[in-house]
Amino acid sequence: MWGNVVLGSHPADHEETQCWLELVVDDEPFGLLPAYWLEDRGVNSLWHAPVPPQRIGARLRYRPMARRSGSDPAAGPWREILVRPNLPDLTETSEPATIGLVGNRYMTARVDDRGATFDLFFPTVGLHSDVRPAEGDLPNSRSHFRTIVGGLAIGSRLDWFAERMGWDASQHYRPETNLLVTELRWRRGPIRLQAVDFAAVGPNLPRTGGGVESHGQYLKRFRIFNEGSEPFRAVFGLYVHAEVNGGIGEPSLSWQDTGHCLLAANRGHGHANRKLARDATVEFAIALDDRGPVDCEPTGPSEAIILRPLDLPAGGEARVDVLVSGAFTGWRGDQGTFEHWLRPALDWFRSVDLESVEESSVSRWVGFVRALPSVESPRPGHAEVLRRSALAAVLHCDQEHGAIAAGFDRGLNAYCWPRDAIWAGAAMDRLGHPEIGGAIFDWLSRVRGRTRTNRAWFMKYTIDGVPEWETPAIDQTALVPLALERHVRRTGDLDFARDRWSLVERVAEVCLDCDGHPGLRWSEDLALISSAGLWETRFGAFLSSNACVVAGLRAAGRLARLIDPPGADAKVQTWEERADRIWEVGILGEGVDRGEPGLVDPRSGRFLEGRRLSPRIGLWADQPPNLVDRSAALDVGALGLVVPLGLLPASDPRLRRSAGAMLVHNVNRADPGGLTRWAPDPSRVEDATLAPSESHRDAPSSLATLWMARYLIRLGRETGEARHWAQAVEFLDRMIARLGPLGLNLRSGPRSVAAQSSFTRCFQGVWGLHTMLIDTILDLAELEYDALDRRVSLRPVLPPSWPRIGLSRDFPCGRLGFRFERPVGSRAHRLTLSGHLEQAVRLDVEVTCPGLGNLGPWSSRPSIPPPQPELPTGRVRWSLDLPPGSLDAEWTWGEDSGEWISAV
Prior knowledge:
The protein is α+β, with helices and mostly antiparallel strands and 904 residues long. It is built from 16 helices and 43 strands. The strands form ten sheets. It has an eight-stranded antiparallel β-sheet, with helices on one face. The chain has a six-stranded antiparallel β-sheet with strand order 25-37-38-39-43-41. Strands 2, 3, 6, 7 and 8 form a five-stranded antiparallel β-sheet that branches. β2 and β3 form a beta hairpin.
């Protein structure tokens, strides 16, 4: 960069005086640089001498010279200085639009769209109880680092990779992995760079001084290509701005000579408030490989630049590998962390074959993907979205504790919400990874063991299970038995349910008696439970929350009949009576001597969002004059009665009217790409409404949009009206079209001035985006297995414009795959089933064929009698027993015309 030197001379008429700066660069004379008069100040005249840019590390010798008209030149003494690296341009204060994720289920790194590390979560995938950002409620909060970014200097300043003026950038994941590749091309010369970010996974990890595997190894691998015909002498730089453990307490950043690394540390501090204390020692070693010399340039109390000279031969390349190794001790002031954790990791880094480490990490992720269902549809993007969402979702799942982080879009969300974790775990079950889905129940058990005061699960926890937000929301408790039942049915492991029966009993106790918290209480006259709602900021007797109680208590009864625990019969009867009372009286309003339906609006016939809502956000009230008796709102949570709770059919008139109103009114006209989670009901404008927040009302939501898509899939299956499937696929494709380049977030659309929120800021996360994408795609090609009943359920959906749909996947009973086809221009249908079964199973087939006038010619292999179709809905059903061994079955029916299209 340009520099300058200010020279001082005796006061004189500056018109008669000339000043220069004599410069020598690395013992080569540079000549005399002219100086320009600035001002007279005191007894001196001041002169400004600009110095042209020089390469990083160059040694400059300079001295001032002056000459007055008619006199000989006079020179000052020589001085020396080294050209120091320039800092990155940090003028961009907002979070990048695209953030990539890499991790290994023990740590998570956020990487921006130019390969700079935006932050690092460690020692868990999200926020640990002894690790927290300084400003966790702000979008740009950090846990451990403000940034780690590389740069390259060729003959002048360091062009940092994060600076858009110096580099063109593109980014992608290696196929079927969580290895992030950033491609950079220098705008001022023939230099290309490839950076690979990943957290090491596999058998080649270092071990601590105690012999335990150390999983906190994050690698940044740089390959620098010279595509020109001239060799270059370059300098590689790595800028580190540490903010370890939020930068609170006594953080430090220093050069460690013995480890030849940069050591970023925070040895913790205490506080009277446990949540503000950092009772742990956290350290990071940031090191370059041993391919060349390394120099370190401190640039601030918590900032430094690591430098290495590079030779770039013509047509050749150079490599630089960077390790960011984490160490964590669960107590303050540990002086032995470096020797116990970091030194073994540094020795491993400088001795192991990093190519094999990278390839073993690739193999682990490819193995994870191999177990996923393989989807076939006319939309080739659906299969890729399913894989990418699965890979993104698993990065939220902590391997050690079993918790699942809600999201990484900002520090506020990198915690575990039980509700979000339960649905994410259920999606992992559907994806063929039940070990992840089962781990959440062990985490829930440990969390409840930490407190004796409250029996309900709180709103959110740190990943290691310490309560972070002690707000009671009954749905986060009530969902546990339903999720446990579905997990056990998918795995067939009844012992798993027996070992966790105490969880079910605790849930039932809370649903019957609440737990004494004033914000969680039973309303006898309403026959409903009041608590925080689905959107967490309001208190009241909400439809979605009480529906979860009904589903949870009924699931608890079914589990009791499956495992038959001692003394459960009397309890089950009480549970089911409470569930029936909430359902029939509190929700449907069908009790005796009730003047008004419970949660059904008698005028519109639609479901109400809730009853007796507290008018103060975040606070509860119990005095009727201070409550909103009947919420006049359209809340997408009402769809939960169909999916995922299964309490009502999608064709229920009350739900159809509610969903139809949402399709009209839960739309932001300035950004119509999706539905909002909440909207005022215009048919009840005279009644009070209370919005959860501006974002819930104005900003389109991937959660709401995909929730509606899942509902419409069920509605089309029940009614035979194919238009519902077409709309569901349209909603799904809208969300896919708005996915960012890495498939991790959604791009914002056009917004009105009033709607300041957007997809990218408000509606990311494991449940709101990735889990819903996974479930929607799998709902279209539904193939499920009940391991307890040994029953396979096949219920595919074939939207009007699709000629085929298919799926293959592994079950405990073996591998199964199907393809459901309809030829172009015909009402004929063909269903083929193939695979290999390890045991006999019962197959239940249910397909809906809109417009099917009659069954037509029936062909079956193996031979079974033709089923009797339900012509009003076009539904065709049959069942048969499948023996173990290879499977090759085919059924055709319907009007025989058109041409079969079987090619993908």
